[in-house]
Design brief:
Blueprint (H helix, E strand, L loop, with lengths): L10 E4 L5 E4 L5 H16 L3 E3 L2 E3 L5 E3 L9 H17 L5 E3 L2
Parallel strand pairs: 5-6
Antiparallel strand pairs: 1-2, 3-4
């Protein structure tokens, strides 16, 4: 269902064990965070069936935006990761942008 939210030019995939990354080219951070919220709600609205039991799923999201003077993608990944952990510390199941 996440595929219904992302555009053709976006890239979505597994980044780590339980982490995923979504690259939204030419997208301002505010717009990207709206997409993150749509995805978070889509995930929350789609419980997983485990041996006949409906298990609710939530997602925490961290976002960061490319900008002049930050050429290395590693910096953006670290910023998004910091925002993700901020979302987790603030109670999980939320989207936080790096600031």
């Amino acid at each position: 269902r996440v595929a219904e939210v992302v555009r053709v030019q976006d890239t979505f995939g597994r980044f780590g064990g339980e982490e995923f990354a979504l690259l939204l080219p030419c997208t301002p951070l505010d717009d990207a965070m709206r997409v993150a919220e749509k995805i978070r709600h889509t995930i929350g609205d789609t419980p997983v069936d485990v041996q006949g039991v409906s298990v609710p799923v939530t997602a925490s999201v961290g976002g960061a935006a490319a900008r002049t003077g930050v050429p290395a993608y590693e910096v953006l990944i670290n910023e998004a990761d910091a925002a993700l952990y901020s979302a987790k510390r603030q109670g999980r199941n939320r989207s936080i942008a790096f600031s």
